[in-house]
Fold each of these.
Amino acid sequence: MAQMTMIQAITDAMRTELKNDENVLVFGEDVGVNGGVFRATEGLQKEFGEERVFDTPLAESGIGGLAVGLTLTGFRPVMEIQFFGFLYEVIDSVSGQLARQSFRTGGKFNAPVTIRSPFGGGVATPEMHADSLEGLVASQPGLTVVIPSTPYDAKGLLISAIRDENPVIFLEHMKLYRSFRQEVPEGEYTIPLGKADVKREGKDLSVFTYGAMVHESLKAAEELEKEGYSVEVVDLRTVQPLDIETIVASVEKTNRAIVVQEAQKQAGIAANVVAEITERAILSLEAPVLRVAAPDTIYPFAQGENTWLPNSKDIIETAKKVLTF
Amino acid sequence: MAAKKDKQFDPVETLHSIEEKFEMFQILNEEGEIVNEEANPNLSDEELVELMSRMVYTRILDQRSISLNRQGRLGFYAPTAGQEASQLASHYALEKDDFILPGYRDVPQIVFHGLPLHMAFLWSRGHFEGSIIPDGLNIFMPQIIIGAQYIQAAGVALGYQKRGKKAVAMTYTGDGGTSQGDFYEGINFAGAYKVPAIFVVQNNQYAISTPRELQTAAKTLAQKGVAAGVPSILVDGMDALAVYKVTRDARERAINGQGPTLIETMCYRYGPHTMAGDDPTRYRTSETDSEWEKRDPLIRFRKYLEAKGIWNEEKENEVIERAKEEIKEAIKKADSAPKQKVSDFIKVMYKGDLPYNVQEQLDIYTEKESK
């Protein structure tokens, strides 16, 4: 066991898979000698060589095309999009090509591609760096979308993502990269994709959340406990497909739920969670399922982040509405 | 007094001097005479006959496909008549190990690379069994998103380079496609990694109704390779020998580690853009059509082979009959494909376990389909 930040755990996962499978290739803008703009690929090129870990020209679409082509020659690409706001440049390769590769070839060519990309607010980045666009890719059939919130989850989920035979979007919240350390096992271990994790058990209210909002929700749960409420925090970990079993079991136990996301209310995936709960567990509900989300504006100018981003106070407020409905 | 022209820096002069480098490469003129003996690829008589047969076959395939489409027995179809030299002679320069990433008009190339004809017809109709590429056949199905095949070709070529495979990735787009970002990114990536790729631009003069002149002020499309530092050539796309020669040379350079090539083939499509209601008389004159028909790749190649005494009407009719027969068989075979079910679609979405949502839907549809 070692104490790792999330970014170290991510590097460790890539190192593990580069070692395990010679078809794994890591590439993107500045991921080689530079070790990535966040040091996620630090030391990997030195250890595995320029054939395995390499830089690309500055063109996201080309990077996506490279991934498609490499899968056709038997490789297992782990491509990086430097910031997920740049997804728009490569949306055809992601949603128009990789997601459909198995389908459009009648199952002949699968696309074992992992797309790593940082996102998320709270660190005063310039325009189009922090936007939460997971809702866009979650709506594309053929894609799995993973968002870890801890170093332990990040490593196990990334190894699973790389081993998955289908395209996986792996979104890394920038604020969580180095915000805390956690015990992370050495060597390989996996966490199944599509499985949520109960980060805190409770019996009065379920909070379904992911990314940086997991920590805001845990903070809110502690505050609410002081007022006598027992709050369960479920970290979705994979936002597409959802872990319906865990979600429904939690609602059936607590009878009340909220969904918390950093994305705007019209974006993200919270509406999906609410819909699934109402379809599957409406008879267990004592109150409507409410959402905590950002306002439906463009992602804020950096100095406006603090008032714009959802936080534990918003969560407490919404939780109380549901608890006292 | 007029201002003195600055000889030190004249961007107009620079542009013109570059553009003048891209002269059209030709071996066979419209009369079927060799005008560039030095460049003659010297194909054997057998090879020449095979190439002619493929071009004739494809012309018949085009005529029959248009007719089958009109009868409702084919779906999406993009006519190919006029582009036989560009499509078949470039393909003829490839080997089995080479990988083809075709555009939507490039069905003939993948058929001659090995895709069974009935599968091409199923693809046209919109049936997934048309796209289950047989083992060992190095093709991707026709790309609908114009430009995507270019960036993907760079990836296939990089894969081949990494595997140490002596083979190339070849891809095709049209004149309109050169305006796409992915066109540029594709050739630029291939150049930067010096990978074995051949990029073909089939300049058939029109992107649906938009003439080539409206795509770019560039005098040639071949010169776009200069922006990527990629060797480029403009070739008479109605001349089978010239197309074969430049493609074969590009392949040689590629497998010897000298990187990609961009080839512009100057050609013409006689028919509409697709059979989905495009009417070329709205944007094209019959004068232009007949002007280009004089340059027909079949006419000049036929003359060349006849002069060599290796082709005649009888041989041509044999090919035509064989084509018609095989097309009939293929359509019949396509007719026998089972009707597609939703459960079929679900099953080919993912390799391995299905996510809960589609698994749930598979159960629902399997139940519905059993009734």
Amino acid sequence: MYTFSNKLKTFSIILMVLGVLGVGYGFMTSHKSLDEVKTMLAEEASHHGGGHGEEATHEVAGAHDTHGAHAETSHGEDAHHGDAHAEHVQHQIANRPWSALYVGAFFFMMIGLGVLAFYAIQIASQAGWSPVLFRVMEAITAYVLPGAIIVLLIAIASGTIGHYNLFIWMNPEIVAEDALIQGKSGWLNLPMFAVRGIVFIAGWSLYRHFARKFSIAQDSAEDKSNFKKSFRIAAAFLVFFIYSESMMSWDWVMSVDPHWFSTLFGWYVFASMFVSGITAIALITIYLKSRGYLEFVNENHLHDVAKFMFAISIFWTYLWFSQFMLIWYSNIPEEVTYFITRINDYNLPFFGMVALNFIFPVLLLMNADFKRVPWFVVMTGLVILFGHYIDVFNMIMPATVGDRWFIGVPEIGAILLFGGLFIFVVFTALTKAPLLAKNYPLTKESEEFHY
Amino acid sequence: MEASKVIHAIYNDDDVLMSAVKKVKAAKYHIEEVYTPFPVHGLDKAMGLAPTRIAIAAFLYGLVGLTVAITMMNFIMIEDWPQNIGGKPSFSFIENMPAFVPIMFELTVFFAAHLMVITFYLRSRMWPFKNAENPDPRTTDDHFLMEIPVDGNEEALQSLLSETGAVEINLIDKAH
């Protein structure tokens, strides 16, 4: 049995407290009046333009007497345009803490859900290497229920108590003027969004509940009936999962850009969650083993998990590139704006994540010997997790805050908050059952697994 | 120095062969060669063979393929004749790179795979009209054969091998 060390518990609570402070600070500082935004924009303009030669010549021209009247009229126009612009920027600034919170919540929910899919695949394929890791996987999936409820609540709250800070299709004023969103309102409307979200969460949690129940029942069972039941529900869940995950990605991620659509988006989000989940399994396994709790896990198991990290990182890149290249190549205006905003305003995160999620793991995890070295896998794993946080960031932020993005207090606060909650939930779940799934028919094979 | 006389110990079970290899190694005899009809898992480790470096070779070949693809397309599409083909930006390699990636990928795989296979053939001396080096045709079917050079220790070696469960022990004079 695992005991949740007080040190780690305190650490997770500190993370949550710091996170709440950070998120609170984000919400406190995001309410700006229109005048404040205007002053801010004027300051920014003077800062930006200060060094330009153009600006200097304008000032020289302004010295002429005849310029007076001309300047006044153009100022009037500027002010008019400035109002709309400032309102837009004001909205973006107000969106930032919501988006930061949503990105953090989604990222950790995604880890839990990715592990749930991985776990179901291991059971349905009757893998012989992984049963020694089942309890670690089951503990990580304990985060699916709270994590997914939090994501759904933030999404709904942004449209009810917030000012449509994440999903503009929730705003009736915008829908009234937007024929494209009107056309999609059969799918994109708040009650249906909530109902679908509840159905997804219910499906995932029911599978998680029964898989865990049968797994623990098998520990003390005389026969293999629980194993058979868990096999059947895993197969059924995987069918449900691939539909629900796909629709979840349209609802919870793609609909922040309601004018844009992509057919392989569901797979893309899946690849991201799958590799993050596998990486989390590797990190938590290495942590528990270093504390002496998993003496039946050897470097061969680590090697296999690291192979999955390597392979699914490449799979993610394949989907990322397929989506990007098809849209870049045909360059249809209605599709390509998605990438134009990302390349113009998010250049470093957008291309940086390809380096983090592809080049780094490919070069570091290609060597078979390196995959067996714990600190090497930990290092690569942290890079992969950071890369996939940036991936979610890149999916949500451009639609909500545009070029007003920064990874500052609200973003880091949300990571700390949900990271702390994740650690707390997962390690609490680890204490609830023995760390080795006894009597599972493939446990013996897994214990003696060597590659 | 190649011994002129060798002993061929024949086994008919891979588990017996594995334990025989371990015993012969423990008695500090040099095993010249082992012939098996199929890969015996762990035999290379028991014999103490050095690990293969073919994966490292393949990685380097892949880098060669990637370089070939990049150099070729940069020269053809960007430097030699930068035409406007359907509005694709042919001003610099990086601007048009997504269109080149499928070729870069395929040539990397092509070079890595084919050069690795050719390396394998060269290093293991396999080619179409090669004379088979099989000492006993039964080793392609269901027998395993261990070849040990004899350096005047014939008696001791023969008794050791018969203890390991060899079904047949033959002294072969290679010098004819």
Amino acid sequence: MEILMAFTIGFLFMAAVYLILSKSLLRIIIGTGLLSHGAHLLILTMGGLGGEAPPVLDEGAKTFADPLPQALILTAIVISFGVTAFFLVLAYRSYQELETDDISLMRGSDEDE
Amino acid sequence: MSQVLYIFIPMLAAIFVPFLYKSVKNIHTGWFVLAVPATLAIIYATYIAKVAKGEVFLAELPWIPSLDISVVSYLDGLSLLFSLLITGIGSLVVLYSIFYLDKHKEKLHNFYVYLLLFMTAMLGVVQSDHLITLYFFWELTSISSFLLIGYWYTRDASRFGALKSMIITVGGGLMMLGGFILLYLMGDTYSIRELIAMAPELMQHPWFTWSLVLILLGAFTKSAQFPFYIWLPDAMEAPTPVSAYLHSATMVKAGIYLVARFTPIFAVSELWVWLVTGVGLLTLFWGSFFAVKQTDLKGILAFSTVSQLGLIMSLLGAGAVAFHVNGAADTVFKYAAFAAIFHLINHATFKGSLFMIAGIIDHETGTRDIRKLGGLMSIMPLSFTVAAIGTFSMAGLPPFNGFLSKEMFLTAMLSLQNFDLFGFDTWGVLFPIVAWVASIFTFIYSFYFVFHTFSGKYKPEQLPHKPHEAPIGMLISPMILAAFVVTIFFIPNIIGDTFVKPAVYAIQPFLYSAPGDIDIHVQAWHGLSPELFMTIGIVLVGVLLFVALPKWQGLYNAFPRALTLNNFYDKIMLGLDVGLNRVSRLYMTGSMRHYLLYMFSAIVVIVIGTLIVKDAFTFTFKGAAPIHPYGVILIIVLICGTCIALLAKSRLTAIIGLGAVGYTVALFFVIFNAPDLALTQLVIETISVALFLLAFYHLPKLGKSEERIRFQVNRAIISVAVGVMVTLVALSAHSQKLVPSISKYYEETVYSLAGGGNIVNVILVDYRGFDTLFEIAVLSIAGIGILAMIKLRMNRKGKAHENK
């Protein structure tokens, strides 16, 4: 299963990088979303997908899924959510102010030179 | 201890100069400054008698003891001679500057602060026995020289000259530092004396040649040797006292000092002999050849300085030959080192006085252009006398000291061809010939300098001021120096015994056991030797060519400007400026996509490269979980969702595609036994999608991709490469796990130690609660940030552009 997941995650990363390299801010944000999904799945896969039961006691199970990667992913999900939300509002505001979402047009002002 | 402090006296005195300048307006600040070098000269004079007997004086002031760095003052014959030149000529230059610089018009406090700083730096250079402090003082001379050349900072030429000399000498200084560090690594000591003592072992070391070349580069740049001499003529924009002091008598001799000081270490190398002699002779010829072309009085003197420094350098190289000859103390090679030091003293006297005369002419007539000058002999008789003494000495005529050192120079060069080592027997013939031709040019420019200025037609209409004799105060210093020029001719052996022999003893410590053992007796009349005939030849050919000068001086203009070294320097500087600018414009495009491309390519190349180089890729099914049937379905759904997000034309479809991926991930969490994750992922994906929809209600439609096809190809290649890289890393990381998970501990203790059953939750709030704390902080900051972005809005048209 891990082998299959490795290829899937590779595909997710590929799609994410392709979107991040596009011109439109919207696509870039979608790309970062895909990238974080890929990263979370990677952490889970690398922790091993074995284990019969969720890491909760009282089930009488012999083996649990590894709880540590799950804790790490939980933290990562929340953080990436916070950052994505911030980024979204930033994109929204920059579109309001600059009236474009094409990043090839956002090259700083002439005064910078 | 106090010996070390003498070095710093000028620097300490410099602190008081601005106060004196501001508070005592009536007296020229230079009079106060004069006391400093004069006192020091007297102090150093007290060492003369003891040093002449071969004694050395050593004092140490710890600076950074833990790194074994200290300021060491080491006075032997060589450093005492230089210290006396620095303080002695320093006093005369300060005296001269009192009359040269106007106390009302000039910023004297700047001038004297820089000058005193320079004096400390120079004393430090010649007395340091410690490599690092030697380098420290060395760069201090570069900096103070930079400040002095740029003294009239409102002139373009001053700034250009200052920058040029700074770049070249500091560049060389850095090379020298490299050489010093190599020496330290080879000998494991910073002390030059100790390095000299272990010279035979150093020669065996593989870095020996490197440190030799690097240290020579430092010396050559500082002493204006070919091809690094180009800064010196441009440094003539400095006030004349500065030119006289720094660029003829002291700073340019720092490189000479360095070569002399390191001769006992490096002279055993063939390369050293060849480089020092060869570059010295080339510089000698080049400088004297181009001095005749100059039309600026100080330009002539600058090229003449270059040429004479080359002469001294070549003599030091020839002196190094003595290390290769058995019983050298009894052969003719012993002359070279003696002649080098002797000429160094002589050059300091006559060149200092000539610069001062050039300054006087500039001061009294308003121009230094030799084409406008002429016939000043009767108007400025005293200046003429001094100038004549200086130039005749420079040309090597009796009864002046230049004659004596030139004879010894010719002796040394003639002796080189008898030397059957390193192929000197075949090429050695060239040495006396080059020396002879260079001496003829020296003769010509010396006469050109004095006679085109003082004799010939008087052209008052071309002169900005009406010329008259300089004030006597201005003439005192050049007259004292000229008096030395004559005196040394008549008492050369007193100078030789007191100053030159102790210095030679420092350069060639292995040859003699005391300065008194050096049995060289300078004679004005040394019989009908080849040297004498060469001198007669120089005078005859020189006079002929000088008389015919107007006929052939124009030939210099035929030399193409494009081939001059200055042109090369300008081209290099311009090329670096323009070229580097072009290079950074090439990759700093301002486009974020380009930067991301660089970053992703770098990551891919480094990671995949490491995988290949380290042969790290392995692949095994061992230890993998069995394939889950629902998992396969979810994978298919996930890939479909990703493709939708990837290829969607409308923003809604893209957002839904992303949402589908998110929910599929949540389902993955379900089948992989991660209930908390599934819960969180579902909630957060819902909120995210809502946010996306909310925010993108205001955003424009996804435009049809109008990007260049080439970029799309780059993009596709890079993204596929990143995907492949992640897969490869994941596969090989999974296939070679080294240690088991620590989660066993959590499973065993979660109830007994933490009193909980949900291991993930207990990890989050108990075992690793700090992560959670700061994750809360991240969320709060994001919330506050979003609020701030939406609420705080500067008025675009009003205050937003505060730069305007």
